[in-house]
Amino acid sequence: MTRPTPDPDRSGGRDLRMARELEGHVTWLGTFSGTALGVLSVASGIYTYLGVSSLLDDNGAMSVFAAIAYSVAVSVGIFVFWSYLLRLFPAVRTAQARVALLGAMGLGSVAIIAMSSWLNAAALAGSAAVEQHLAKTVQDYQTSLERAHEVALTGQALERDVARVRQSFEDLSEQEATGDLSGLAGRGAVFRVLRQKAAELSALEAQIASQTPRVNDAFSEGNAILSRMRALTVEQGPVEARSVEFSEAAVRLQGLITQMRQLTVAPLVERAAQDLAASVVLPELDSRSAEGRNDQAATIKSVLEVLGQRAATLERAAQEVSALPAAPEVTYTPVSSADAVILYARNFIPSWAGAIAIDLLPAVLVFILAITQSAIRQGRDGASVEDTMTLSELRAALRAARDVDLAFDAEHLPETRKPPEAESAKETPSAEVKPFSGSTG
Question: Among the four residues 58, 370, 398, 429, which has the most C-beta atoms within 10 Å?
Fold first, then answer.
């Protein structure tokens, strides 16, 4: 069983009817497309004005006029650009022309984003972006403060190492006082050397201990400033005024962090450990016998060796603290709403999408109109003139043909000869013209 072949005349008729229907829709849509494009352009201009106003420091009349002029120029540019494309892009037929217009559309879209869309995004999410910048700065300062406090506390922990070395020398001095160290009871030369170093370590220990309250006070004050800075990021009111107070708090906090860096005692302990073994005042050996003096000298030599070992251990501990990563440098830099929107663009993708869409939405209309015009042309391709003519066009063609015939007859007939209608009317002036009844019988 063979399938019936489609009738080309019937198929062409359907395509022609579809083309005429699409033309009617395009004509109706064209009645308000310009108005809709104008509304989009004006809306983009308004948000551009808000974005430009946030960039201008001066609020005088000239700044307002400059912002209005820029926003009006943007609105006009967007309207003219898309009006050109709505008219020209659907009308071109060659692929080369369409590719060229697509390139022009892409270049114009980039220009629109550069002069308008980012300002629209600044107007939509500028305050939120500045608050995001403040919140991130608070986190950076908190990390820096906690790191500075951690390093300072690690340095304060050297107090235990110093106390342990001091206690060891005090214990040795007690052994020397009872005669268990050099064999000579009393407070002689060895005892004085041990007490000398114990006193030095005791002074260093007291100096380290005096730093602890200052470290704690600085950390507590820094946390209070951080609490106020966090509150400023979420308070109601203009973000510009809050940014000023935030900047002042950031300066105070930066000073506290610098102070905490200076409170670390690791460099002090390292220098003291180096001096511990290098600066030893050896007393005069006071034993009455040569054997006793030899014992004292041997004991002092052993004490100095122990002293060097303890000093090296203490120096290494201090160097380990000094080698710890320092607190990161944080500097608060005020930013405008437009700069903040660009800086934190990933956090405001919906605002960017809305700002760009309001400028580039007409591109969708251009493609829709181009597709529709292509369908209309495809429906009319191959159709004869008789099929594509409308009733009004047919009437105009008949009137034109009649006018051409009359002009031709007037040019070629002799002037002395009158038209047949005039001669017949002259021969029977009184004849009664009866209406045609439609029957021949």
Answer: 370
